[in-house]
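Quick one: structure for this chain?
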Amino acid sequence: MDYIRELRKTVGSRPIIMAGACVILINEYKEILLQLRNDNNCWGLAGGSLEIGETLEQVAIRELFEETGLKANKLKLFNVYSGENFYYKYPHGDEVYNVISAYVCSDYEGVLTREVDEVQKLKFFKFNELPKNISPPDLPILNEYISIAY
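Got it. Here's what it folds into:
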């Protein structure tokens, strides 16, 4: 997130448009992988912001690997999200209007390993047993995916 850190030195905490990607990772049991985030103590999807020169698919692949240790072999674009529902104020005060490309992945490899600076815990959940404390920007994405897939 070097680009955003550099940008924040200029604009401070005021709202910015932040483009990024997330991954809806589904295992062979049709469970979805969520991570308990360190920054807001909520469960969410693996994902992050776009760095200069990256494609959104590259962001999804990079963030999935960095946060979970898993390598996506194949991604499928699910949907692109933006607008008022994707405004978010981080606990430390930074404000963003997210533009998020959500990808679905069920073809992956690797050993599940959390990134300790960002992730408290990684866990697969059944669609009907998701935790209550879902990270606000991920909730509409999860709700839409589950309404279609479940």
